[in-house]
Amino acid sequence: MLNVDQYLQFWELFQKYKIYSNNTYMNFNSIAKFTVKDRFLKYVTIDTQSDPASDTTPSTEKQKNLGHLLVTELLAMGINDAHLDEFGYVYATVPANTGKNNVPVICFCSHMDTAPDCSGTGVKPIVHKNYQGVDIVLPDDPSEIIRLKDHPDLQNQLGNDVITASGNTLLGADNKAGLAEIMDACYQLVNHPEIKHGKIRILFTPDEEIGRGVDKVDIKKVGAYAAYTMDGESAGNMENETFSADGAKLVIKGVSSHPGFAKGKMESAIKIAGGIIAALPLSLSPEGTEGMEGFVHPVAIEGHVESATIDFIIRDFDDARLAEHANAIRNLADTVKQKYPGSSCELQVKPQYRNMRSVLDEHPQIVEYGMEAMERAGLQPKLCSIRGGTDGSRLSFMGLPCPNIFAGEHAFHSRQEWVSVQDMQKAVETILHLCAIWEEKTL
Ligand SMILES: [Zn+2]
Questions:
Q1: How many CA atoms lie within 13 A of 391 on its CB side?
Q2: How far apart are CA 202 and CA 229, in angstroms?
Q3: Is residue 124 within 8 Å of residue 102, measured between CB atoms?
Q4: Is 352 helix (H, G, I), strand (E, B) or coil?
Q5: Closest by alpha carbon to 429, among 372, 366, 376?
Q6: Between helices 173-191 and 421-440, what is the axis angle to 10°?
Q7: Is pLDDT of 339 > 80?
Q8: In whole angstroms, what is the distance from residue 176 CA to residue 114 CA?
Q9: Which of 423, 405, 431 has its CA nearest to residue 239?
């Protein structure tokens, strides 16, 4: 038996040995002069809010201001093909520097817009150095307090430099953290030729927050085997699953009649609709589900006595269960309708998007290499799922498999949004390791 001291000594040796034996790869932390913080602080001051009411691409012209800056910075690094296209997309290529000619082209992707839910005008970022676990009061609106108890991930940031907005706006870490990380990684690749890699493609998109981020993307021009969006939350997390999604419209036909003479005749479509909504179980509702559970969710209702429609969204990680959820709506409608013999209900279902996991499972090394890259960066990699859709899931079904890697962003779309400098640096390291791993594993 070992006593405690011997055990600790043994443990220390074991850790040393483990680190030493794994350390056949480069330690990017020791060579990188990170630029990610300065880039981030610059990008967040540029207002890039997108607008769902606009039908142009990009939805707001101001997004191109950031696009121009990114292109200028890429060109200054010597990345000569960097350009902004008419739709507000930035494309660029870090040329390969390996002797191997068969390393797959890998793409890194982030979005330039910020969410319409919260102002992005006049963002004043504040760096809280050496965070010590205290509640952060935002000076421009002291009622905005970032509390440790509401943001448990802050517990992992003790001693780190946490960046917030000042109280009147969002920060825009979603997804300018990702932009800054990819830009810093490009800078490191260009300045450290000892990091061997294949061709690295860069893609920055507009309008992700309004669901149109890949509408005008030129997949041929990207020409990559795999992509990674840098748009996730906690350091070490990677998301390989999204919801599968259907939209459904329930069309209700009632029986109209003069209200003064309606007894025994009128069947109000409005009341049938109300009965169906009231009967939706909590266990199948967004407010009553979490984790891997799916739901049905009425998002709009419109009605008169004669007819009414309810628009639903249906979500689940499992494609087959989408149909079960649609049937649950049909069954509820049938039950409610029993009291209304002259009326009818019909549910029309339309597919929206699908869980990207089915695509990623066909190319398992894309996720495996991502996990290994995070591990090499000293993180504990964790696979997660997203209770929503991403541009990555759409890209995956357009032929570009695309999981999502952490960018360090927290409390998205709110005035309490925050990110730490150290998490962003870990994301830069992760990108560099990924580039090296793809080269290294190609024979
Ligand atoms: Zn985002």
A1: 30
A2: 10
A3: no
A4: strand
A5: 376
A6: 50
A7: yes
A8: 9
A9: 405
Q: 234 CA distance to ligand 1 centroid (A)? A: 13
Task: Give just the sign of the alpha carbon dihedral 441, 233, 237, 191.
Answer: positive
Question: Which amino acid makes up residue 330?
Answer: R
Active site residues: 113, 208
Q: Contact at 8 Å (CB) between 347 and 248? A: yes
Q: What are phi and psi of 127, to 5 degrees?
A: -95, 115
- State the distance from the centre of ligand 1 to the C-alpha of 103, rounded, in angstroms: 29
> Ligand 1 centroid vs 10 CA: distance in angstroms?
44
Distance of CA 338 to the CA centre of its chain: 43
- Single out the residue of 232, 250, 249 nearest to residue 241, CA to CA: 232
Cα(258) to centroid(ligand 1), Å = 52
pLDDT tens for residues 43-94? 999 999 999 999 999 999 999 999 999 999 999 999 999 999 999 999 999 9
pLDDT band at residue 22 using 50, 70 and 90 as cut-offs: very low
CA of 208 to the centre of ligand 1 (A): 7
> At 24, is the pLDDT very low, low, confident or very high (cuts 50, 70, 90)?
low
Q: What is the pTM of this model?
A: 0.86
* Distance, CA of 243 to CA of 292 (rounded, Å): 9
- Biggest alpha carbon distance in the chain? 92
Confidence of residue 16 (pLDDT cuts 50, 70, 90): very low
Cα of 328 vs centre of ligand 1, distance in Å, is 32
What are the b/e assignments for 263-280, b being 16+ CB within 10 Å?
eeebbbbbbbbbbbeeeb
125-149 per-position pLDDT tens digit: 999 999 999 999 999 999 999 999 9
Residue 229 to residue 109: CA distance in whole angstroms: 5
The residues facing 405 across adjacent strands are 230, 238
As given in the structure block, the two tokens for residue 80 are: 């000569």
